Amino acid sequence: MVFRRIQVVGALAATSYVAAQSFVSDPLIDKVVPYTAIPYQVDTHTADRGPQSGYNICNSTTEGQTSMCQTAFVNHLDDFCLWAPPKPASTIGDTEGEEVAWCTKPGKGTRLIPKGALKGVQLVQSPGYIQIAGFIDQTMVNIADGDYGGELDSGGQDGRGNPIGGLMYTNGFPSNNGKNDTFQQSRHWTLFIGGDTFCVKVCDDTQPNAAHLCEHIYDRIGCAYNAPNDAQEGVFERCLGEDMTPVGVYTSNGQTLTWTQPPESLGPITSIPYTPTPAASSSCVTFASDDLYGQLSAVTPAAGNPKSSTSATATTGHAGATGASAAHAKPTVSSAAGQNATTASTTNGAAALAASFIASACGVLFSIMLFA
Ligand SMILES: *[C@@H]1O[C@H](CO)[C@@H](O)[C@H](O)[C@H]1NC(C)=O
Ligand SMILES: *[C@@H]1O[C@H](CO)[C@@H](O)[C@H](O)[C@H]1NC(C)=O
Ligand SMILES: *[C@@H]1O[C@H](CO)[C@@H](O)[C@H](O)[C@H]1NC(C)=O
Question: Is Transmembrane helix among this UniProt entry's keywords (predicted)?
Fold first, then answer.
């Protein structure tokens, strides 16, 4: 059983979740739900964390910026969804069970990501998964300014998923043969968002290693480790790639070893024995943002998402390394999202910073200024 909670940034995070919840006998990750047979709510439990907050049948009547749709898609660079809060200025840690789908295209009965929110996105398609990492103005999708966020996935502390009952589909796996009108469920997926970065990965359950390629027990070490990537601010690209080495697996002195995230009861993560690098990628093609997300032009962000004009201070450490990190995608999305650790120190802006966490990382927990 996995009793896990999202760790948001450092100190904040931890307090929001309490006692271990009972683990359900019908975990979300085991629920095979064909796209053509989606129930109103896939989660039927009412105890502990309460009932599913939204619904899975989403259509033209649910579409719009108040949608509570909890069925999401990761299809293509121009066609994907993120999980984010239903109400303005929320932290991921406080709302992990209730996130709703925010998508780049209308037609799915969801909210739309406001125009201009996506600041750089990289999609990598590997044999085992589709991974999308990028930079986002998270206040435009109701995430509190400065929140380092955390992990959302089909596991969860009680097996009900975060969000509870969240379903994920794609038409982008090879088995779909390029058709866009049929969708395959992904039961193994992870999404980190916060620190103005994100990374989402949907693994192909028909491939041999879906559970490990979309491992969901490393919720405190962010995008840098869970979805190593080369996303850059201002760049929108799609690439082919090899499968990543599963999170936690590394080589030292010729031996393959596995590092496991320590429980929170042992305190902050102060060191991780390896630095992740993105798996080899190729055939990258870049696009103009407007060519990808033109349909978002009419969408304006909700009021009530104040943005601080000052810099945000992260206290956790490296994005990659500590909880926050999930979010911390920021850097190059390194942590949170996915960074290009190697470029970190040379690039500008947030991206660069992120990266630098990672690069230096790993050893010590330290405070970082996110936005210089
Ligand atoms: C549209 O979605 C809503 C919310 O899930 C559902 O109640 C309604 O029955 C759906 N309508 C159709 C025609 O499927
Ligand atoms: C499927 O959608 C993608 C982008 O969303 C597009 O590039 C591709 O041409 C579409 N495929 C078909 C067969 O329509
Ligand atoms: C990653 O960093 C390396 C080294 O600076 C650079 O050559 C490469 O272009 C970067 N890739 C991306 C996608 O930023």
Answer: yes
